[in-house]
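Objective 1b. Sequence-to-structure analysis of ABC-2 type transporter domain-containing protein.
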Amino acid sequence: MVKKYLSVFIITVKEYFVYRLNFVLWRFRVILNILIPLFLWSAVFDKNTFIGSYDKIQFISYLLFGNLIATFVFGTRTFDISSDINDGKIINALLKPVSFFNYHFAREIADKALNLFFAIFEILFLIWLFKLNFIYPRNLLLFLPIFVNSVLISYFINLSLAFIGFWTTEVWPIRFIFIILLSFVAGNYFPLDILPPTIYKLILFTPFPYMFYLPAKILISHSTTSNVANAMKQWNNEAMILIFLSYFWLLASYFLARLVWQKGIKSFSFWGR
């Protein structure tokens, strides 16, 4: 059983190296996505010692760890599902002697693992090239389950978006809006707690911070800087609430994906094959 999905994993990885120029340009774009916020915030810190409760080293660490998390959490192959629904190819997948969801999850993990593998080397190269100071990751035992949560929340939400293909062929505009929204309210470009308190609290009631901000924040928690130490006390009080909300959104996103799938498969019809 495991052998089948391991084969799917290996084949998916090999697919990325068929068009080598596309692959190189893709990795170049990833590096640019790291450099732009890095240079932007470094320029801001030239005139400010702190932004919110963050000094420069903490902020840079957040961006570096966050980019590693983002490559694993945000990368997805679920867009293939909506294409298969629109083309009617999903029928072939459902008739195969493999689990539809396990098959696509194996492809998803392959995409994320490849992203993470190259992102580690790219970030290490940037640290060496620009002589960046950063905090070594902390709280790994707490980070790991929250990181798994963030991956699964992202996967289930992307599945739900892919299943919209049961009702419309215009899935990409919806996904594009989701990606743009996610980039700003998940804490991809900056820690969310530097926002005004009201906006920050409102965003915490959405699933987005638990995909990026929370795991990245956990990795840089605890500092000896006095100003930050006070902020960390408040953070520790919030942490348990945020962890609880992370598990809530994990369950909510799972049941949403399951509900959309069940509704969609019942209404699905296709002609011409």
